[in-house]
Amino acid sequence: MGKTNKGKKAVLLGLVAMLVMVTAACGKDKAAEGNNNGGSESETITLNMMHPWTSPNVDNEVYKARIAEFEEQHPNIVIKQDGVPAAQYKTKLRTLAAANNLADINVVWPGADLDPLVAGDLLQPINDMMDNWASIMPESALAGFNVDGKQYAIPTKQSFVDIIYYNKEMFAQVGYDQFPDTYDKFIDAVKKLKEAGITPISLGNKEQWPLQSSYISIIGDRYTGSDFLPSVLEKQAKFTDPEFVKALSVIDDLTKLGAFNTDANNMDSVQGQDYFIQGKAAMHISSSTVDGRIRINNDEGDKFGIALFPSVEGGKGDPVKSAGVVQYGIAIKSGLDEKKQKAAEEFMKFFVNEDLYKELIRNGIVVPAKVDVPEDASKYLKEMLELTGNGTAPVFDSVVPTQVVDVLQNGLQALTVGRGTPEELAKEVQDAFDTMN
Amino acid sequence: MQTLKGTKLAIFFGLFPALLIYLGIAIVPIGLSLYYSVMNWNGIGSMTFVGIDNYVQILSNSTFWLSVKNNVIIMVTGLIGQLPLGLLLAILLNRGLKGSGFFRTIGFMPVVISSVMVSLIWGMIYNTEYGMLNNLLGFIGLEGWQQNWLGDVKWSMLSISIAYIWQNCGLYMVIFLAALQNIPDEVNEAAELDGATGFKRTMRITIPMIRSTIMVCVVYSISNSFRVFDLIQILTGGGPAHQTEVMTIYMYNSAFMNMRYGYGSAVSILILLFSLVVITLINRLAGEKDA
Fold this sequence. Notes:
Chain A: InterPro entries: Bact_solute-bd_prot1, SBP. Chain A: Keywords: Signal. Chain A: Pfam families: SBP_bac_8. The structure holds two protein chains of two kinds. Chain A is α/β, with parallel strands linked by helices. Chain A has two domains: 45-158 and 325-388, D-Maltodextrin-Binding Protein, domain 2 (3-Layer(aba) Sandwich); 163-323 and 393-435, 3-Layer(aba) Sandwich (D-Maltodextrin-Binding Protein, domain 2). Chain A is built from 18 helices and 13 strands. Chain A has helices spanning 2-37, 58-73, 86-98, 115-119, 139-143, 168-173, 183-195, 209-224, 228-233, 242-256, 269-277, 291-296, 338-351, 354-362, 379-388, 396-399, 402-416, 422-434, and strands at 45-51, 77-83, 105-108, 146-147, 150-151, 157-160, 163-167, 199-202, 281-286, 304-307, 322-327, 329-332, 392-393. In chain A, helix 8 (209-224) crosses helix 10 and helix 10 (242-256) packs across helix 18 (422-434). The longest helix of chain B has 35 residues, at 2-36. By secondary structure, chain B is mainly α. Chain B has a single domain (46-288), classed as Orthogonal Bundle (MetI-like fold), CATH 1.10.3720. Chain B is globular and about 75 Å long. Chain B is built from 13 helices and two strands; from the N terminus they run αββαααααααααααα. In chain B, strand 1 and strand 2 form a beta hairpin. Chain A binds chain B through residues 91, 94-95, 97-98, 116-117, 119-120, 122, 206-208, 262-266, 275, 402-403, 406, 410-411, 413-414, 416-420, 435, 437, and chain B through 40, 42-45, 57, 63, 123, 126-129, 148, 150-153, 236-237, 239-243, 253, 256-261.
């Protein structure tokens, strides 16, 4: 008797738990509906959108505000956002792609990242929509998202990944009123900063891309010139070429000088920025996007200057170039039904237009479109445009396939903990490239 | 006969849903992994059959063996860290300590918290700049002992092991406690009459009495150690430079970061084989002692 009673109790408890869950789920749904379309009875179309706009960067706020505005003006279209932190975004995108389960609207990267998605027929070509952007989008900005004459996405942002932010006061303290313009002077400054008890460079390399993207893209370019990566891909050159090995040696040299903060490998990129903004280091190398945090929206922004990596002795690259890439292409999934397709196109036309670019510029973000820089634009943005306007070098991971990038990233991290040599790393990277299909 | 037939049918219908679920979430994926593991596949495009090529590549990859080594470290940590500590705590609680319910809850807490939280907490403790551990060392005048706990190759695996012990020993504590409470009082009383008290009683009476539970925990702890992923992924991401990478992270990176799904599947099959081999070995060893 006791036993059966217990059994009944368990079943009852289970039922109650299930009921609670079901009602809770219903409640949530209703709340969401109420928020999004004001309870109207007309047919609503829900579009899923996956994006990496979760960190506290100014441009992320602009994108999200734009989505909200779209929903306001289109009460019958609901944009269900799936915000994935940038460090995991590409992984999730690839995983969903493998399961043929992309969101209706996706944020995609050009070049090596886009290719597999196109090869798998997962994205909808948008050639018939291109008139919308004909007047403002230069060919060069679209090229990265164009495969065999078909356009797959429109970029919303231009990133320069290699901006050196430096603390003017700290540099002045060790006798540099200007940012050093040669590598030798740069190293001299690092040594002097170190002697003065200042961490020369703040680095947050836990996610591993900073050393690869922000450092090697441009240091490599200084030594090898911009033709190097394309010719490696065509097997005309090798990562083991002495120029590229020299570029890798720079990371080794900086490590040996103790240029980075000790916990460089367990801080993420945002923590790395904070460390610099808080005045704990003299330099931080990152993308033009973080200028929003470092200078534009910072009361003490004037303390910080921007510069490019200095020229190197015997380098084949042009020392005024900055490593840049168009980013955040908005792309539509292929094979949507007609209604969704139309809604998605509607969204894209609204989202990526002149207003978005202007709003981004107003917030100090460099955009790939031909939009006039407003008179009242931040002086910092004008400075950034001047600094980055002298030619563009390729960004390593936007050109080179991911599995080769992975070997490089791990190898660079190894250099920072005193494992391996630049020569060994160069060989590993070349081996990884050779063993690819 | 008639009734037996009916029962069989009933048993079948009773088991069917569970069987279906088990097939769907365990057997079929393993089969699929096996299939993918002989393919070269980027996850999106077409697959090409490459035979045992993936396995050959994996077994000749030094990073993979580094990850195996780290898995062994985690396994040993579980066996000599979590289990004895869990047992010790269980024995202490079983002594009828005042407020034992409170301590039991505290001990079990880490098991209930999501491992993402556990990792974040330990990440903060180990942080070089503002971390609790380094601050504490500084506070008691041991600045020289301050370390870059997660970023330094010398310390990273040790730091992870400690977090791993903290995370799981509460689980074994609760299992052992349940087993201890099942030992009849008469046995303990008889032991005491014969003069077996304290440590002696624990070694001679208590531990042999819960031997089968210990064995279950050993097997569980081993298979757990091969599955460890999120704790390390969040604490260090397998870095610096693969030094804290375990097999699951190696698999994740191969499949999802580098888009080599065939290769990653082959790694997952190897993980399965490794854990089966180790668990079989342990069972054999334990079985021999029984005889």
